[in-house]
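check these C-alpha cells.
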Amino acid sequence: MNPTPSLNTDAPAPPPWRLGRWTFAVLLVVCAAAWALMRPPELKRLIATKTKLPVVAVTKATRTNLARTLKFDAEFRPFQDIDLHAHVAGFVQQMNVDVGTKVKLGQVVAVIEIPEFKEEIERANAVRTRAAGDVPRAEEEVRRAELEVSKTDAGIRRAEAAHAEARMTYERLAAVAKTQPGLVAQQELDVAQARERTTSAQVEEAKAAQAAARAAVAVARTGIIAAKDAVAVADADIHRLQAKLAFTKITAPFDGMITKRFADVGDLIRGGLSPSAPAVPIARLVTVDRLRLVFPVSSSYVARVKAGQTVEFNVSELNRTFTGTVARVSGEVDMATRSMEVQVDVMNPDGMLIPGMFASVTLTLDRRDKVIAVPIAAVSRTGKPNLLVVLKDGTLEQRSVKLGLETAAKVEITSGLAEGELVFIGSRSQAKLGQQVEPKLVETLTAE
C-alpha cells in the first residue's frame, strides 16, 4: 500500500514580489481599456486609418437645376403649301418659273392663252360702241318730240282762241235772232254756227296732236333708257372679259418657292373653276422663310402641353439645337394614334431648314431651380425614402428624406439633407450603419 501523503504545513510561502507582478499586469490592462474608451475622435480616426478603413463612393449634395422633359420626333412642314391652278381653260403661253425659283407676292408665274378671247373682246367693244351711239340719237329724238309738244301747245292755244271767238259770235247772233226775229239772216247764223263747230274740232285736233307729241317724247325717252341699258350690258360684258383676262395671268398669292412644276409651254390647261373637268395645277408653291415643326404628343401628356411653352429641337443633319415656342395645339386626340398634334412656328430666313427634315423636340414638363438633388441610386425606397450619409467622423448614418421632382438620373431632396453633406451611392450590402468608412467623392452634381 502506498502511504497517504501528509500535508506539509511547514512549506515556505511564495515571495511577495511574485504577487505584486500579477496585480500590476491586471491594473495595466484595466487602465489601457479605460484610456481607449476615453480617447478623442481624432485619435480614433487616426487609429482607424492605421487599421485601413473600407473606401466607399459618395457624392456631395449640392444645389442644381432639375427638369423633367419628354422627347418627340418632329417633322418640318411648310407654313403654307398650295397648288397654283388656272381659273380659265387655255394653253400655256408663258412659264416664268421652274423648280427652286423663289417668287414674291403678286409675281406672274404663268400666262394662259385663250384663242377665242380676242374675238370676244372685240365683239363686246363693238356692241358697246353701237349702244353708246344709240344714246345721243335717242336723246335727239326726245328733243324733237319735246319741241313738237311745244308746237302743239301753241296750236291748242290758237285753236281755243279761234273757237272762243266763233262761239261768242254765234251766241251773240243767236241771241239777236231770238229777240228780234228777222233782223239776222238765217244764212249768217248758220255760217257762225258752222265756224264755231269747225274751231271746236280744231281744238280737239290740236289736243290730239299734243297727246301724240307727248307719246313720242315718252317713246324717245324709252329709247334713251334702252340705249343706256345696252351700254350697261356691254360694259358688264367688257368687265367680265377683263376679269377673265386677269385670270389668264397666274400670280403668286404669297412669298415662297416653287417646289414642283406640272405644265410646260403649249400644254392645254383645264380651268380650275370648271365642275365638269378635273383641275390641273400649274405649279406648287410653298413658304420657305417660315415653317411648321409638327410633332405628336401622347394622350398621357396632352393636358400638360399649352400654347406658349418653350421647347428645344435638335436637327441632326445640321448638328444644331434651336429654341422655339408652342404656337398651337390641335385640341383633339387622334383616335388611331392616341396622340395630339402640336405645332411650333420656326422662322427660317436663311433657308437652312428644309420642309421634310426631321428634328428631335425636347419639351419641358416641370422645372426646379437651385434645389438639393442626389442620384436616384442613392435613395432607398424600402419603406419610407431614405439614404446613407457619411458624417464628418466617417460614420455611416441612415437618414429619412422627402423627395420632390424626379428626373431620369436625379431626384430632388426637399427635406432631411443639407447642402454639402456626403451621400453614400454604393451597394448597401457592403455598408453597415455606424461603420466608419473612408469616403471617396466620385460625382459632382451639375445643372440638368
